[in-house]
Amino acid sequence: MTKTRVEDLDWNNLGFKYHNLPYRWTDTFEDGKWQGGHLTQDSNLVFNEAAEELHYGQEVFEGLKAYRRKDGGINLFRPDQNAKRMKNSAERLMMEAYPEEEFIKAIKEVVKANEDFIPPYGSGGTLYIRPFMLGTQEVVGVTPSDRYIFRAYATPVGAYVKGLNPMPYVISEHDRAAHKGTGQAKTAGNYAASLYPSFLAKKQGFADCLFLDPREHQYIDEFSGANFYGITKDGQFQTPKSESILPSITKKSLLKIAEDMGLNPVETKISVDELDKFEEVGAMGTAAVISPVGSITYKGKKHVFHSETEPGPITQKLYDTLFGIQVGDLPDKYGWVVKLT
Ligand SMILES: *Cc1c(COP(=O)(O)O)cnc(C)c1O
């Protein structure tokens, strides 16, 4: 696959897609130890047809971004949290964790090596980094791999959804993760399970679907790739407490920011029958930061939040505050930002 050249990119229309940049970080786990990571120009992976990951899904991944500041420097946002979460995901999938310091080093090296591809300040674009790990041992019987590849590539992405446009969502009749399954791990299998429900939602004209808890189908879980929040009329920032959702770093950060804004942050079970208590609803995750949810349709009834065309004022402020911290325009009072240069 041919490499993307900087001059081929239109910073204001990047979308969210893969570009083959000059460098990525790669490492292998063999003979009981990591062999030592390094940058490589080779964007292909080579492994056997019987590799564990291909048949039994032993894979975990992460997603984080590098941001160009106004002064030209580069910020990372809470990469330690991604390193820790990847370790937790790996342990759930019986994989060898990638050491936290190596993970951070990998991210920094990949960003520096592809620095020319970080979208300029003000374009809304960022450099998205995708670290991942897979089991490569040849297996036929189901057993954890004893060999792994760790890799981290980067690709420039635009503002995931341009401007804050509210979107319509629908409650899915399917589940993405089982109760006490792998919902808390960032693993490929959860996404494979969400493809069909997501397809059905889109076919009906929705932006995507929202999953309920897999045991009772009564409480809100999350979207296929983003956590849920709702703002109540009395100023609570509510987000689901559930064993089958991915612990979002964006959520963790917004819980703090909401509190700073004078909202009351609450992690609790949220019944799908109580949707009308929310003034505003949003989806949170690294890719979009926040996507405002204009409506949720459940059993044929559409519940509208704030407006179907304009983001609510609290949603707008949460977004502006978090993105402002990430890109270095606002003070980083919690020490979340890692300045690369
Ligand atoms: C990655 C992901 C999120 C968002 O997590 P962030 O750390 O905020 O990017 C939410 N839900 C799922 C299922 C995810 O995979």
From TrEMBL:
CDD domains: BCAT_beta_family
E.C. number: 2.6.1.42
Keywords: Amino-acid biosynthesis, Aminotransferase, Branched-chain amino acid biosynthesis, Pyridoxal phosphate, Transferase
Catalysed conversion reaction: L-valine + 2-oxoglutarate = 3-methyl-2-oxobutanoate + L-glutamate; L-leucine + 2-oxoglutarate = 4-methyl-2-oxopentanoate + L-glutamate; L-isoleucine + 2-oxoglutarate = (S)-3-methyl-2-oxopentanoate + L-glutamate
Origin: domain of life: Bacteria
Cofactor: pyridoxal 5'-phosphate
Enzyme class label: transferase
Protein name, entry field: Branched-chain-amino-acid aminotransferase
GO BP annotations listed: isoleucine biosynthetic process; L-leucine biosynthetic process; L-valine biosynthetic process
